[in-house]
Amino acid sequence: MADVLDWATTSPLVLLFVTLLAYRLGVWARDRSGGHPLAQPVLVAIVLVGVLVLALDVDPADYRAGTTLIAFWLGPATVALAVPLHRQVRRLRGLVLPILLGIGLGALVSILTAWGLVVLAGGGEELARTMSTKSATTPVSIALSETIGGIPALSAVFSVIAGVGGAVAGPTVLSWLRVRDERARGIALGSVSHGIGTSRALHESETEGAFAGLAMGLTALATSLWLPLVVLLLG
Q1: Above 90 in pLDDT, residue 225?
Q2: Per-residue pLDDT reduced to its tens digit, 43-52
């Protein structure tokens, strides 16, 4: 029995299957609950897999190696977000400059507020640099953190938390604020919660998902441009 358990907790096939199954259960929970905010498939999958990894004492390195295939397909999946955007390109007319200005300033505000909150809470400069990358999608956040002297692994955690939090609470908050325009909702979700928020936006509508994908990419670009300057001035 011990040999079987050891095989199950180290086998790439089993770990991959468990991850995909957890996400599928998240999709089922979302559909059964009528799209309840807390039934976000990624959040459900994180909780289920996290509990299982802790309960079975799975080595994080083994889990990461076992799910490399999923990480590989994240790249093509992100590029594929250009497809719905291409279909909605006519709806970009007259909005290019406002989108660029809004996302550019939003990225700067995100960096400064993250840095300021860490300083106010008594955290050190290394933690401030780590936290300031949170609005960029996870791969970009990790790369930026390595460049500016942050903690890459912790930057990834902050990005995932921002993504899940935005996907869970974002649509409800936007509805409370009476933001009805699908383009505005998509830009808000993509800017704040990157890939996970974009996934949620795509579930709402193709237009919302297209603009979320655009905002995700532009936010990562704006964060990459602003962050070195902020570190130079505040670091």
Answers
A1: yes
A2: 899 899 989 8
What is the number of alpha carbons within 13 Å of residue 99 lying toward its C-beta?
23
Tell me the pTM: 0.82
For the record, the structure tokens of 20 come out as 């995909």
Q: Which of 195, 201, 134 is nearest to 161 (CA)?
A: 134
Closest CA to 102 of 202, 22, 186, 160: 186
If you average pLDDT over residues 13-24, what whole number do you get?
88
CA proximity to 89, closest of 199, 190, 214: 214
Do 190 and 221 meet the contact criterion of CB atoms below 8 Å apart?
no
Residues 6+ apart with CB under 8 A from 80: none
Give CA angle at 139 (122, 149), nearest 5°.
40
Exposure string of 98-124, with b = 16+ CB inside 10 Å and e = fewer, is: ebeebbbebbbebbeebbeebeeeeee
Residues present in the chain in total: 235
**Predicted pLDDT of residue 7:** 59
pLDDT band at 103, cuts 50/70/90?
very high
In whole angstroms, how large is the CA radius of gyration of the chain? 19
